[in-house]
Amino acid sequence: MADILYFGRLGDVAGTGAEKLDIPATITDTAALRRWLDVEKSAGGAFLEASVRLAVNSEIVVDPHPISPSDEIAFMPPVGGG
Amino acid sequence: MITLTPSPFSPSEALADFEKEARGAGAIVSFTGLVRDRAGDADVDGLHLQAYSPMTENGIEKAAADARQRWPLTALRIIHRTGDMGPFEPIVFVATASAHRRAAFEAADFLMDYLKTEAVFWKREFTKTGNRWIEPRAEDYSDSARWTQTNMETDRNARHK
């Protein structure tokens, strides 16, 4: 099971901030994961936005980055504190 | 030193502690960011700050190391809130110390621009009319872009003309 984290507004889109998911064996990289989840969550493209970065096991990656079934994968919309 | 805390903190106590730590410095600059009670035409009831540990802490550590490399700092302190907070509560505190004022001012400014646009936080605002996630504004990004080496050189050249 992969740990999927949805930060910021993507938590609203996904309906949760974090969940464990069985990712289909055919989904082997981050670009495919975005497309699959966008359909699964009826997100209307929110997971496909270029401004949304992905982190795999706490490292920000560039699409398409390989993923394994037990990875922690975070969807990160634009950040900012202060 | 860098602290993320889900509890309220006192900027005046933080500054007093920092003054002790930075004893001997010729210049101390501190900045405190507070939760506003208004956003546009809406009353703000509060903010929620999400972080992603340890990515958030590691990123801030790296920005602090960058600041130390670029300016001759003798001490540096960053406190950032997470979780829920109300209007007027401190959300961020940055303090820098150096032998002279320019380095302390610039380093604090640089660190705040990092925190506003690159630090790994997501900010949600609660208002009477609804809740919304806030992302950095265009001017936050242009403020932050001032610190890229190329832009700093353009600035310096412009000043010398």
TrEMBL record, chain A:
It comes from the Bacteria. Pfam families: ThiS (PF02597). InterPro entries: Beta-grasp_dom_sf, Mopterin_synth/thiamin_S_b, ThiS/MoaD-like. This is Molybdopterin converting factor subunit 1.
TrEMBL record, chain B:
SUPFAM superfamilies: Molybdopterin synthase subunit MoaE (SSF54690). The lineage of its organism: Bacteria, Pseudomonadati, Pseudomonadota, Alphaproteobacteria, Hyphomonadales. Its EC number is 2.8.1.12. Coiled coil: none annotated. This is Molybdopterin synthase catalytic subunit. Converts molybdopterin precursor Z into molybdopterin. This requires the incorporation of two sulfur atoms into precursor Z to generate a dithiolene group. The sulfur is provided by MoaD. Belongs to the MoaE family. It catalyses: 2 [molybdopterin-synthase sulfur-carrier protein]-C-terminal-Gly-aminoethanethioate + cyclic pyranopterin phosphate + H2O = molybdopterin + 2 [molybdopterin-synthase sulfur-carrier protein]-C-terminal Gly-Gly + 2 H(+). Transmembrane segments: none annotated. The keyword Transmembrane helix does not apply. Keywords: Molybdenum cofactor biosynthesis. Pathway: Cofactor biosynthesis; molybdopterin biosynthesis. The keyword Chloroplast does not apply. Heterotetramer of 2 MoaD subunits and 2 MoaE subunits. Also stable as homodimer. The enzyme changes between these two forms during catalysis. Signal peptide: none annotated.
